[in-house]
Amino acid sequence: METPADPAADRPADGQAGRPADRPAVLLATADPLLHAEVQRLAASVGVGIVPVPDDGGLLRRWQTAPLVLLGADRLRATADLRPPRRPGVVLVSSGPVDQALLRPALDLGVGEVAELPSAGAWLATALADLEHATADGRVVGVLGGAGGAGATTFAAALGQVASRHDATLVVDADAWGPGVDRVLGLEHVDGVGWEQLAGSHGRLAARDLREGVPRRGRLGVLTWRQAAVPHLPGAEQVAEVLAAARRGHDVVVVDLPRLGDSRDQLAAHCDLVVAVVPATVAGVASSIRAVAGLEDPTRAGLVLRGRGTDELAAQRATGLPVLATMVSQRGMDESVDLGLGPVRSFRGPLGRAAGAVLDRLRLAGRVAA
Ligand SMILES: Nc1ncnc2c1ncn2[C@@H]1O[C@H](COP(=O)(O)OP(=O)(O)O)[C@@H](O)[C@H]1O
Ligand SMILES: [Mg+2]
């Protein structure tokens, strides 16, 4: 049975007012009136409109452009027979438990999630709300110190300040031994969630919950430890989930990386670009060689030289990485941080300009494979 052709099928349903006309909508393919009503009710509860697709033609036409496809269990076999191209974001929805016999065709079709209603209702509502509020597919830049005290945390904070002039930005503190990025940015007294709260959560993290939950000033947010005496990062899977949610909710995500170790390598694998801040001294370059040697993908990495003691070419030769920016020490930086103003005093100063150069490079970086 097919639902009757709906003349409104090409238009967003109610609740979608304000959605730009050219933005594709979530699709719902089912001829099961109960399931249809239940999904519509969930979508309406989070203010998201969905487009019912009554026939195969309508489904195929929009298959690849829809941000999410909700495929009713009743339509699964017929859709699998159409052999549409594989795509992420296909959710199998059903009233009650899914028949085991459908799992094979679901796998063949590339279904990524199964939502059995009503028990998965809250999950589905979150996934829909999250889509609606995801602003972006942001870029992630990691910062590490080539040597201890090189200025990595300072540079990560500077990237956050400069990026947030125009873009929604999140600075993620992943270096448990650092001074706390919230302090460097003057956000330590602003309320918001930190790693401690996220460590307890499981499953998909909504981009909006992360963006609106963390301490924030204007377009600049920060994720760090808020109180832990002995801070530590959650497990790799959860960190990956947090970074994915950060990307969906921000244009630019900056990660203050630990200098070395497994967790640094795991985090670096999620970065579109990794920059090592290197003291421009013989000793600084020497210790940076070791720090960058473990980076899995040197084509996505570069240096920021701090100081004047060594030239770019020497640093480049020694590490095998290109110099993306050189900066002299920023005068008055410590006072600026102490006043809660962040390290960048002027966007035209050495720190501001170096951060700008790295952000330009980030814009050109391709997205690392997930
Ligand atoms: N660009 C800079 N200009 C001037 N001083 C800096 C700069 N970057 C760092 N510093 C100084 O070095 C100290 C250590 O910097 P930090 O960013 O915490 O280093 P790291 O994270 O590499 O250990 C800061 O407290 C600050 O006094
Ligand atoms: Mg640091």
The biggest beta sheet is recorded as:
8 strands, mixed
Distance between the termini: 39 Å
Low-confidence stretches: 1-22
> How are helices and strands ordered from N to C?
EHEHEHEHEHEHEHHHEEHEHEHEHEHH
CATH third-level topology of the largest domain? Rossmann fold
Structural class comes to: alpha/beta
* Bound molecule kinds, no repeats: adenosine-5'-diphosphate, magnesium ion
CATH homologous superfamily heading of the largest domain: P-loop containing nucleotide triphosphate hydrolases
Say how many strands there are: 13
Strand content: 15-25%
Helical content band: 25-40%
The CATH class designation of the largest domain is: Alpha Beta
Return the CATH architecture of the largest domain.
3-Layer(aba) Sandwich
Form type: elongated
Tally of individual domains: 2
Mean pLDDT: 88
**Number of H- or I-type helical stretches:** 15
Radius of gyration: 24 Å
Walk across the major sheet and give the strand order: 8-9-7-10-6-11-12-13
